[in-house]
DNA sequence: ATTTTGACGCT
DNA sequence: AGCGTCAAA
């Protein structure tokens, strides 16, 4: 009974030409993004087959992006650089930059930001879906455009060269079919076209402009899918690449779905897609239409069942959030097989490297987005375990030592050493991966007029932490006085951390890694901006002093960075502000020795 | 020995 | 909070 009512309602919805969404949704997807970023940086690579690799010591590195020229030779993601050379001897392999002995993706994040900025010029509703993809809600812009005067004077054939309509044989130039004629002739547009297709064609004109603007302003090509919801837009975007766009109207859904493999649909590319395929013995999305809502819910649960029921009819209610910056900032590194971390020294070294990258990125994020992360989660994968372990702790200030120490404690809790010989703890099992992720961002700082306005006007994505008096919380056994997060109170916030140094910590403190003290208390006075200004000034001075020969250093604010000290390892005089890097250098040497012994 | 990310759902 | 899934380069 209920089922037949839902079937009836669904049929009614389907009579509505756009599947009931009433929206215009676009997915913009950059073509082989990392390759384009590198080619912009190295124009001589233009028109040459090219792939991006991470690292290259082992098998020529792992490929993470491939341009369309190289794809012709069968070069794919996840191949080794070496294998790519075999398939395509002329290929140019560009390495991802490395910093602190790990891959550094910041160039690509910056380029992504450039694209997002251009997109924000066209519509107020943008969802960053990944580093190179964004969903746009063009419903309003399309309405505006239709209501504007320029609408009548459209010349479709001129503007829609790179536009396709899904489900039409538009690949063969000699056999232009109905779909192509539709979009290339204004007269058809005015007379013989359903209203949902009409808005999508107008959207296609806007998307064409958006893509041209991205190319002109930041120099990247992209592809796009134009439809009524996220699922269809994403599917459409993949149909014609690179540098093209595809309309997928509701009227074409059945035709397209009759040959679309399940795993090609968003969210069905993994285990669920396999389950659906196996349980129902079907291959294509369209075949799902043969199953009642009841049966789908029995087999896959209430929620997933109704999701599948609607999905195969082209209906998808996934909301487009309004957010072009990430909700978390993280970095991690794998230590596969032979390179697994076996000593406390090695773990601390990499925690230091990861923490420094994280703090660097968090500080940039703060100046860029006037927000501050409130928590860190450390993930690590002990050898022999199926899944990684995660532990979360509070982040009262952006401080490398704090992150290193809390992470170290977290890792130690469930991972006991078998021997403990003077800063050389050894575990029965090694550590195969460490990942640090900062999250729980709250808006902060001055210049809050603008950010507050943004906050108020945007949909739920941003949330306030209500301004209240300072409170303490117990997290991972450490008492932390948190700052008040909003408004004026913040100005006078003073941070204190209460150190609880364990025996193990102290034994480690003698290790060459521990340059700064654990939980160096940080007192803050004055506004955030003042702090940032000071940091910026300090960096300028430092940069001038060392003439750009060294990475600018980060975190721990020490009064006199220019005081020289004698290095305990080599006896050289070293300025304090490069001491950490200097010790890293020694440690890297010792690690290399270690690995030679092994 | 793909690696390094990031979002979200489940419990 | 911690784990699992899915996805992108």
UniProtKB/TrEMBL annotation:
Catalyzed chemical reaction(s): DNA(n) + a 2'-deoxyribonucleoside 5'-triphosphate = DNA(n+1) + diphosphate
Enzyme Commission number(s) of this protein: 2.7.7.7
GO MF terms held by the record: damaged DNA binding; DNA-directed DNA polymerase activity; zinc ion binding
Ranges for domain UmuC: 25-269
Presence of the UniProt keyword Ribosomal protein in the record: no
Keywords, in A-Z order: DNA damage, DNA repair, Magnesium, Metal-binding, Nucleotidyltransferase, Nucleus, Transferase, Zinc, Zinc-finger
Domain UBZ3-type per the UniProt entry, residue ranges: 560-594
Protein origin, superkingdom: Eukaryota
Cofactor: Mn(2+); Mg(2+)
UniProt cross-references to InterPro entries, sorted A to Z: DNA/RNA_pol_sf (IPR043502), DNA_pol_Y-fam_lit_finger_sf (IPR036775), DNA_pol_Y-fam_little_finger (IPR017961), DNA_polymerase_eta (IPR052230), Rev_trsase/Diguanyl_cyclase (IPR043128), UBZ3 (IPR041298), UmuC (IPR001126)
Broad class of where this protein is predominantly found: nucleus
Cellular component GO terms, alphabetical: nucleus; replication fork; site of double-strand break
UniProt-listed GO biological process terms: DNA repair; error-prone translesion synthesis; response to UV
Compartment(s) where it occurs, according to its Swiss-Prot or TrEMBL record: Nucleus
Family listed: Belongs to the DNA polymerase type-Y family.
The name this protein goes by in its record: DNA polymerase eta
Record organism: Amphimedon queenslandica
